[in-house]
Amino acid sequence: MGIIRGGSAEYDDNAISIQEKTAQIEENIRLALLADSASLNLSGKYFIDEDVKILAQSVQTKSVKTLDLGDNRIAGAELKAL
To answer: N or C terminus: which one in the chain shows less Cβ crowding within 10 Å?
Structure first.
């Protein structure tokens, strides 16, 4: 995002590292599995394609029988990782 100050633009980079993103996704999974360890509802979490790879590699998802990823930004090709 560009912020104009005194005629020159400064850019604020809000990108997070892969480690931070992995920690956030792992926490989302942990919280979602508290109610039912066999059902994982991650609908509306604004996940993108690279997040599916992190989700697929999480050890927390081994016991999951149903997964809801509705209302996310995931392409069909990336769902094959699951």
So the answer is: N
DSSP state of 38: T
End-to-end CA distance of the chain: 33
DSSP label at residue 42: -
Q: For 59-80, what is each residue's pLDDT tens digit?
A: 999 999 999 988 888 877 777 7
Tokens for 81, please give them.
């990782």
As a whole number of angstroms, the distance between CA 14 and CA 18 comes to 13
CA 7 to mean position of chain CA atoms: 37
Q: What is the pTM of this model?
A: 0.75
C-alpha–C-alpha distance, residues 39 and 76, integer Å:
21
DSSP three-state, residue 59: helix
